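Something for you to look into today, if you have time. Could you write out one complete protein record for me, on any chain you like? Leave the record below and I will have a look.
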Amino acid sequence: MRRIGLIGAAVDPLARTGPAPELAALFPGIELIAFPSRVPAFPYTPLEQAMQALGHAEAALQAAEDGCGAVVIDSVGDYGLTATRAMLPVPAIGSGEAGLAEAAMGGRRFGIVTVWPESMNFILAERLLAIGCSGLCVGIVNVGEDSDTEVLAGPEGYLTQIREGREDVVQKVLAGVAELAARGAEAVMLGCTCMSGMADGIADAVDIPIINPLAAGVRAAITAPPLSVTPHLREGRADLLRAMVAAVADEPAEDCPVCIG
């Protein structure tokens, strides 16, 4: 069985399955393993986003050392992807990069619907610009408000509502898809990997393609060829990265157990 590391994914000690169990039927024979970031900062702004780049890079380093044949950043923000590609001997895939590539396939126009507030659209805007498909995006629909981020964890936390596909959240997402279709979108990408669990239900309820960025990332990792050139790390750099992350790893974790994706 091929092992793929999901970088930034949370480890649920109560779960009997691995991370993203909804993907098991899509990718038989693939073992997905969670490697969470040890940086306890929720990326409300570009500052915390930069912190998470280091946390995700360190987690990816551990995944490669543990024998994963590829890694997938479990975030549409692709935190630390450039750094990860500069040091790992295995393919590194960004869910945001892969999802946007599928959404824009063949030059089609697409939109993005996300459960997060407009204040966090800087993450999506950066990915659109970096991948070069901003001109094909008809818009981003935000179904979340800033107040939703105040309580993220716990049984009634916003992240729990998203992952469980609560009806009110799903209905808002469906309304967002309809709005984007009315603007001319030929496909819609879900704007967070945390929406993976509701992706199939959303796709079944609408008439245009729905792109699950986490599934797109895993698909890209499976088909990625081995690296033709292995990056060379300067001596001591891996230890330095681990030391930098370890310096903050024991700080109190913010409300969200995983990074926004």
Remarks:
- Residues 46-65 form the longest helix (20 residues).
- Residues 54 and 80 are 6 Å apart (CA to CA).
- Residues 257-261 have pLDDT under 50 and may be disordered.
